[in-house]
Amino acid sequence: LLSSLLLLPLFTNKLSKEEFGIVGLLWLIIPLSRRLLDLGSDVSVSLKFFKLENKELSNWLYHSFSIIFFNLLTWLFLLYLVNPTFSEIKSEDLVLILFIASFQSINSIWSTFAKLETNATAYILITNLPQIITTLFTTYFIYYVEISYQSYLWGMLIGHGIFAFFAPLDLMRRYKLSSFSPQRIIYIKILKVGLPVIPGTMSVIILASGDRYVIKELIGLSQVAIYTLGYRMAEYFLITFLQPLQNILMPKIMSLAQKDIDEAINYCEKIIKNVIYGVSFAIIILFIPMKTIINFIGGKDYNESYPIFLLVMVGVFISNVTSISSVLFNHFEKTYLSMLLNIFIVVINIGLNFLLIPL
Q: Is the pLDDT score of 86 beyond 80?
């Protein structure tokens, strides 16, 4: 988290507002690309962790990896045929984005399995080191190679790529590759649960970041930069408090749900109440100093980021709290219900953006 936070003053001081605005768009495009590459297979296979024996789980795991690999090749081939541009992002940058997204998908499966195995050391390394490496290389590239958003892309490619190389090697020690037997029925089962995750997750991403694209279209990239700084500060603040807790709770809730769903529901209710009280108290304490922090990072050109931070904090807080109970929702593999709910919410959100931003 801290390493990601250190990138913000680098971007606000070294990049123009327009370049930083493109970085804000990348924080939308890359997660969307990742979901198109893995087709929700990472969620599908993780939901089987407590339901399958090791050999069968291993088979599902490598089915998931093969989906990511095949989709990467497919999208690269399409880029070669069409050679498109997306907004201010060049076609060659889209190739980098596809590789970054595929690396993130692989690392996501690796970290999720480490979390469900309650292997804290592995989980900490997998989730922290890629971002730290990304920060180091991005800083070097911006200072000594090119002051551009492309330096950030290359930093991400290296940071996530190194770990994506080691992910299969580590997983093969516990989940034997010899168990992999490609079967049409398993692909169908993975995609049946995974495909609804795509519009569902995309809706969540668009809900969180899609307004940046609306802002760009209506009032320009420089305003995207101001919005992005305020949003990221709220996001980083809540991740500090909630993400470690969520990572601890996920295997506990899934394990309880497999044994006794009523006990799991009661456990979730108790945790959510405590989280609401605890984080609300922390938010109240840090509201005022956060304005100083934002001004320090962005300077006077980013003064408008603070009121954005205050507004976004409320929405991100509610979203993070409800994600605790969504673990139970997903336990029944009814991912299409989450999809319908998220699509409904995001349509309202984007509609309000088009209505209110011009005002």
A: no
